[in-house]
């Protein structure tokens, strides 16, 4: 689960925050540390919450959840993902981006 809080100063009304979850590792590093796993494969494990949006009033906090389905036989390794929320005021820029890790153990 994660939260986004609208902390944009001097604004009125709600703002739409688009967000996306993606692997945040170099493809070579991921392949070498995870038995040949590709970024596309690791991102296919995200079954809910890969991307969406939420409208938030000033000071309001919105919550969502990301669900993974790790397949049987997946390599035992560490994968870093990031959640990035786009800035609703400045197109093409990020409001916030944070990393989280999945550590697959046997």
* pLDDT averaged residue by residue: 95
Q: Helix fraction?
A: 10-25%
Shape: elongated
Q: How many β-strands, per DSSP?
A: 8
Strand content: 35-45%
Main sheet properties: 4 strands, antiparallel
How far apart are the termini? 23 Å
Q: What is the H/E order?
A: EEHHEEEEEE
Segments where pLDDT lies below 50 for 5+ residues? none
Going across the major beta sheet, what is the strand order?
A: 4-2-7-8
Query: What value does the Rg take, in angstroms?
Result: 16 Å
* Structural class assignment: mainly beta
Total of helices: 2
Describe this structure in words.
- The protein is mostly beta strands.
- Helices cover 12% and strands 44% of the residues.
- It is built from 2 helices and 8 strands, in the order E-E-H-H-E-E-E-E-E-E.
- It has helices spanning 27-33, 39-44; strands at residues 2-5, 15-23, 46-48, 51-56, 61-64, 67-68, 78-86, 94-103.
- It has a 4-stranded antiparallel beta sheet with strand order 4-2-7-8. It has a two-stranded antiparallel sheet with strand order 1-5.
- The longest helix has 7 residues, at 27-33.
- The radius of gyration is 16 Å and the shape is elongated.
